[in-house]
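hi support,

uploading two proteins for the ticket. first:
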Amino acid sequence: MNLKKITAVITACFAVAFFNFSCHSEPEDLSAESTILINADTGEILYRKNPYEERAMASTTKIMTTLITLEEGQLDRRFVVDSMAIRVEGTSMGLQEGDIVTRRALCYGMLLPSGNDAANAAAVSISGDISAFAEKMNKKALEIGMNNTSFANPSGLDADGHYSTAYDMALLTRYALKNEEFRNICGLSSASLEYGNPPYKRTLYNSNKLLNLYEGCIGVKTGFTDNARRCLVSAAERDGVTLIAVTLNAPDDWNDHEKLLDYGFSLLSPMEITPESFTLPVFGGKETKISVSPEKNEIIGISPGSEQNVKIEYHIPAFLYADIEKGDKIGTAKIYYNDEEISAIPMIASEDSFREIPEKTFSEWIMDIFNLG
């Protein structure tokens, strides 16, 4: 397909919706040794304190383990858990030898009750053993840009060579939240599942109290070990603005995150981006032209006055061939902030264009399209 690329810079003519959030001063007296707050849409850092300091990150590790498990697929295939993998200390989803599970159930077990048994069982299911899975975790970390992170196990238990930074964990979370399944699971206060031998229904509860404490909280993961102390990764969304906060070694993490998120929402405003529609020539159809429109609008959070940093690139064909049905994907509108692609909106056909019988010659179609007949 012959594609053309059109770039449009977002200007003041685009609708920018500013909401009256309460103004908050920069958070003070945070208990965390390391912390960071970022705009999930653009990656912009809004607050930091020792963000690149390498620290143990406890069960926030399971963000990576769950992400890899979801990306591996075969989520609903049933299998028997590895009996050695589930013999692990710490928090658990209650797996026992001989239990029949699915990878999907293990993802719930990791993100809600923070099951170390679930993390190990998922790792062995995917890679055959813990060390091989840790290699996969480290490879994925480098792909994401987590350059100061090293994973030694899938659960987050204290171990030599197992560490990250607040900044890297924010990068990981920003990436993971783009996975719809991950986003759905980590935001649940509880979930009903079936597993066991034979499988039977039971309910898992999320250890993340912020889901009920903070308006708009959508996740993400708690953590604690003797070495890491209290760790927390949170995300919250209001009026289309999404924030990610990370604290490592934070005795008062719930309050830390409320302060951080309040501060972030006071800095950003939602901006609604509406891509343009196009009319494209069509060869071989009853209609000689067809309208192509964005499938949806996009809302992102930005700092007021930074609209000029947003642009759209349209990747659409120069012309089309019938048959086309309404709703068919024709191209993509890619949204960039400071030259980083942050979203891609499908461009779809707004109407049908079916093949005409008998077909006209190519020359006849050219004449019709350009009104040369």
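and the second one:
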Amino acid sequence: MTMNDWVHRDIPTFAVVGRVNMGKSSVIATLLEIDDNELIRVSATPGETTRCQLHRVVFSERECLRFIDTPGFSRPVEAMRAIQQIHGEGTPGLESLKKFVAEAGEEFGDEKRLLEPLIQGAGVLYVVDPAKPLRDDFLAEMEILRWTGSPRLALLNRRDESTGPDEEAWKTRLGGAFNLIRTFDAHHARFDERLRLLKALLEIEEQHHEQLKETIELVEDEWQRRREEAVEVIIEFLEAALGLRVSATLEERDLRVASRRERKTELLSKKYFTELAVIEQRCFSGMLKIYRHHLLKADSSPDTFTGIDLESAETWTKWGLGRSQLATISAIVGGSAGLAIDAATGGLSHGAGIVFGALGGGIVAWFKGGSLPDLRLDFKGGVKFAGGEGKSLTIGPPKNPNFPWILLDGAMTRYQQTLARAHGRRTEELLAGGEIGFTRTFPAERRSLLAKWFNSCLKSSPNRSLEPEIFEALVASLEEAEQPIDR
């Protein structure tokens, strides 16, 4: 790209500048939601960005905003003196900077390249780490940027909320050279913090005020659309998970040989939870795709993904509804559907009882039923077998009335973790559940609505007439889950 290409008169453009390793690339990556090193290289190695890199914000194939990642200052004090020498008496301005870029040698290569978009009229987003001591080289950077005359915003990029003894001195010095000062944490900034940063740019940029305002509105609209897409993914997940049933064919010899009988029932239980994990994985991967994450993953390997840990007592105590809430919900919907074990036979009542007992024991063992008082499995009704050579046995879903609420809490905590992950971080991480759930704090009206819909899904017949209300209820739930997580 040539010098003439950096700035377009109709597109707001900001050059992200600062000293080497102050987090410039991390700020852009988090602001633009890019966690791909092929697009934005984020590294602790000084000098990783060696040339200007243009990043466009595009909506409906229309470029609305530009950010330019620049090389870091490497010799700011010497560059400042060279510019002053070019200018002579008085305070240097834009023309002196242009001469410096045109005439200075390669010993000022980084300074020349970072100034190219600025002398064309790009605004300045100056990134500093307030934990660093305020030295002469930083003061030289501020002076050079002040001489551009461009709109200037200083960003205190706090790393893991770290501060230093010189932070107030930083603010004082920055206040004399910049139009506005803001704080930011490129490794943890959430959507609301990114939006505030964009709105801060709106405060300093008068020439493109309307374009920036429109872009911010587009960003907000897109976020709402993505939240709605996430709701669609969760609805699909809940319908599939609550309607999941698995079957096995039992031959008469399976009923009469204990080892075969136990093996069949064990495989059937394992198949149910394996298929449930596949449904969960599809949901969690879908949310990561919506929010453009590549380094935050749903699993380390599809073969080892286990999803929501239904085997853990902790899951059933920190997520889902409380006992009184479940009792109220059960009264409203007439009781929740339970673990259905349906089969048919032609008079093999003794064999049916054996299979029923074995299967029940397998499921209870899976959930560690004795240690989970909230997990109540109801096996009333017996097992029936159809006539013919094959005996069909179907199971699913668990009887525990908290099961749907556990699934919803699991999805919402992973949604919250997805939003809490800043794109400027470059370590791989597995998506995991949070420490607390959300459904217990839902308004009673929302719980009642969801319970009725859950009940229909458990019967494998989702109530489509409720879906518009369910959609709105889950949109509201995700908005609540977007609140910051304490770090």
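thanks. also noticed: Residues 19 and 138 are 8 Å apart (CA to CA).
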